Amino acid sequence: MINPQNVFDVFSHPEPWSDDDLARIHHLREAHRKLDAEIRKIVVGMDQVVQLTLIGLFGQGHCLLMGVPGLGKTLLVRTLAASLSLNFRRIQFTPDLMPSDITGSEVIQENKATGERTFRFLEGPLFTNILLADEINRTPPKTQAALLEAMQERQVTVGGVRRDLEAPFFVLATQNPIEQEGTYPLPEAQLDRFMFQINVGYPSQEEEKRILALTTSGYQPDLRPVLSREEILGLQHLVRKVTIGEEAVDFILRLVRSTRSCEDDAPALVKKWVTYGASPRASQNLVIGAKAAAILDGRNAVRREDVIEVAHAVLGHRIIRNFAAEAEGVGPRQIVEELLKAVA
């Protein structure tokens, strides 16, 4: 048990690793390789997107996939679910979607023998392990709020009764950054619940050529599950044990705190272009993301490179730019890139 008074002992005296833990790291690295091979049977390219999605899964975080239609975002989520022994459901978000449509509702059920009527709860699509929230910005704030509770608390409240969601619970949401007509932009509070925002770009010419070969022929991939639910839960717990030194923690703190224009020692570029910076949740996600990146590489200790690998996905959607940045065409990626140079 960690003593709150000696919390920094977590960094100076990390939890010891057993031979069984080290064997499980090797198992995870092999499973990562096999899982990537299964995904590659269908998904072409998107190396960084696939890697960050897997880091989010094992880090117990949710991911927001941003990209124009037709890039394979939904296909990636379906393929990931088919490669794992987990329940999968999809919600197509629309303007008329109500909270009860995703959480479930209570209905009156009559016992034909006795005539007695009772309420029975019918589970909504939130009761699953992997949830694809397609075009999440097309639903009103009321429904978005119902999803927010599930993402943060891993539970839903219906009729005043709280119902826990089965672990693992992993939300992969998609959003089209171009078409904004009839959409409801996600509030900053909900964006902050996503561990990563992953930007999906266009494929290269060779990748697009392979996409055509796979999708316009009679090719039928044979996907096989790689990990069971129990294995995934165990590996998620193992991620938390990965050692992270004070040097890496200090690097994370300097990076996150440098995004806040209210800090006296904030870089000049932040004071010029940023209205609000990242919250402590960003620091938490950088630590967990770096740990997951390390363990997927077969290591039980975090390096600075692991933090840099997930920095854009963690910070990009948490930095609120001001009018000057938008007028000059300065995006979150450029700001994070400059901060990484300044902090390093």
- H-E string: HHHEHEHEEEHEEEHEHHHHEHHEHH
Given this structure, which CATH class of the largest domain is correct?
Alpha Beta
Overall number of structural domains: 2
Report the C-alpha radius of gyration, rounded. Answer: 22 Å
The total count of strands amounts to 11
CATH superfamily of the largest domain: P-loop containing nucleotide triphosphate hydrolases
Shape category:
globular
CATH topology of the largest domain, by name, is Rossmann fold
- Average per-residue pLDDT, rounded, comes to 86
Number of helices: 15
Unreliable parts: none
CATH architectural arrangement of the largest domain: 3-Layer(aba) Sandwich
Q: Roughly how much helix do the residues carry, as a percent range?
A: 40-55%
* Terminal Cα span: 34 Å
Alpha-beta classification: alpha/beta
Main sheet summary: 5 strands, parallel
β content, as a range? 5-15%
Structural account:
The protein contains 15 helices and 11 strands. The chain has a 5-stranded parallel β-sheet. Strand 6 (155-158) and strand 7 (161-164) form a beta hairpin. Helix 3 packs across helix 12 and helix 10 (246-257) crosses helix 12. By secondary structure, the chain is α/β, with parallel strands linked by helices. The longest helix is centred in the first third of the chain and has 22 residues, at 19-40. The protein is 46% helix and 15% strand. The two termini are 34 Å apart. It has 2 domains: 38-227, P-loop containing nucleotide triphosphate hydrolases (Rossmann fold, 3-Layer(aba) Sandwich), CATH 3.40.50; 242-344, Helicase, Ruva Protein, domain 3 (Orthogonal Bundle). The radius of gyration is 22 Å and the shape is globular.
